[in-house]
Amino acid sequence: MRLTIVGSGYVGLVTGACLADLGNQVICVDNDTEKIDLLTKSDEIPIYEPGLEELVKKNKENGRLTFSSDIEFGIKDSDVIFICVGTPSRDDGSADLTGIEKVSRIIAEHIDSYKLVVEKSTVPVETSEWIKKTINTFKKNGCEFDVASNPEFLREGSAIEDFMNPDRIVIGVESKKAEELLKELYSPIETKIVVSDIKGAEIIKHASNSFLATKISFINAISNLCDRTGADINAVAEGIGLDSRINRHFLKAGVGFGGSCFPKDIKAFIHISEKLGYSFGLLKEVEKINQEQKDRVIRKIEELLWNLPEKTIAIWGLAFKPHTDDIRSAPSMDIIKSLLKEKAKIRVFDPEAMEKVRKEMGNRIVYCKDVYDAAQDADCVILVTEWNEFKEVDWDRVKSVMKHPAVLDGRNIYDSGKLKNLGFKYAGIGRR
Ligand code: NAD
């Protein structure tokens, strides 16, 4: 099939490269001309995502994947148009859908034959109605089109694997033609295709992310009880999660969830529910627990170090999770900002996210070349992102360079007994 992907970010670029690899002819367009220049003229890609650079290169070389900043050309050339632009939070928590509206208008102005317009961006329920209305209002001819919802569930860090081997594919459609086109497109992927109406598909995406975030806040709330009683949250989570009705995924206590999806999608789900007349109290509590979790980190450092002004804190891990360079709504950023407010000095290291953090934080913090460099003269190390390379560190060496050996294990991955025996003060999240 001939496909156009509008928005070549984390989702659009992965979608474009994977669909090209499955044999389709794909144009990825974006209004960020710098991004398109980089993708067209070099073998580099603008983000870090394992395996993506190679997949993009391969499909560019075999001619199935091209890039353009000319959205009109992309629209004229394709049968199916995927909208993958960002849908960030506005100040009131609602999703900013101006990008979706702009793309819908351009589609309307340039539609010259039947098109299937697919929402892949995460959007509030009933967005498809607005897309339809917009295209109908601005199109200059009688060309037919369908709108469908095909929410994306990939995870940054394992995006290609997730796209090619998903737990399910959700398609929300209201015509047989749209259903058949999407089923044919996804036929090379072996998985269950869940077909629903469009509103159902839109709700599925927000509900899935909200449910996962709820599990995280639930176990973080339980970790509060563990902190107060001395029980170990890791054992408690295992005891809960081995029940197959519950399962262990997303039952890890830590510094709170972040990233470009959960925080904004929960806000948007609360907002759209409110607009529809339902107050989603459960999700408001999920958000509140998540915020408190980040505040708890600061209280825990105070318990280890007493006063924070002039203390040096090493932050290990900045990306919102391992295997990505994405720092959007990363807990590390909130923690760093709170510590700076307390006049602490910050030294940081992350294997992939340093450049993005440098752009946001400038010279307010010190950028280090590895975990040992970050720990130099530090009063405390905080593990924020559990990169594999942080799991096996030489603790004798860490201790020898620190001013005061204290560790806040924000992901509960270290052997607390071993660290205490080596002379470290240790604090975990719901674990001593
Ligand atoms: P992103 O910011 O990485 O990419 C969005 C791209 O769209 C950018 O390159 C931007 O320049 C481009 N863009 C914005 N407005 C445009 C316009 N009018 N015309 C052309 N291009 C435009 O965002 P992302 O992480 O890829 O997320 C995209 C959508 O997918 C969001 O709705 C997000 O919630 C959803 N989603 C993201 C993930 C994830 O893990 N990142 C997973 C599932 C769903």
Concise summary:
The protein is of the alpha/beta class.
Please characterize this protein's 3D structure.
About 45% of the residues lie in helices and about 15% in strands. The chain is α/β, with parallel strands linked by helices. Helix 8 links the parallel strand 7 and strand 8 (about 190-195). The longest helix is centred in the middle third of the chain and has 32 residues, at about 200-230. It is globular, with a radius of gyration of 23 Å. It starts with a strand and ends in a 5-residue tail after the last strand. Nicotinamide-adenine-dinucleotide (NAD) binds near residues 103, 156 and 260.
Portion in strands: 5-15%
Question: Total helix count?
Answer: 17
Q: Termini separation (Å)?
A: 56 Å
- Name the CATH superfamily classification of the largest domain: NAD(P)-binding Rossmann-like Domain
Q: Give average pLDDT, whole number.
A: 97
* Shape field: globular
- The figure for the number of domains is 2
Key features of this structure:
14% strand, Rossmann fold, single chain, 14 strands, globular, 432 residues, alpha/beta, binds nicotinamide-adenine-dinucleotide
List the helices and strands and how they pair.
Blueprint: E1 2-6, H1 10-21, E2 25-29, H2 33-41, H3 52-61, E3 65-68, H4 71-77, E4 80-83, H5 98-110, E5 115-119, H6 127-138, E6 145-149, H7 159-164, E7 168-172, H8 176-185, E8 192-196, H9 198-229, H10 233-241, H11 262-275, H12 281-305, E9 312-316, H13 331-341, E10 345-349, H14 354-361, E11 366-367, H15 371-375, E12 380-383, H16 395-401, E13 406-409, H17 416-421, E14 425-427
Helix pairs in contact: 1-3, 4-5, 5-6, 9-11, 9-12, 11-12, 12-13
The structure holds nicotinamide-adenine-dinucleotide.
The site of nicotinamide-adenine-dinucleotide has 26 residues, from α1 and α5.
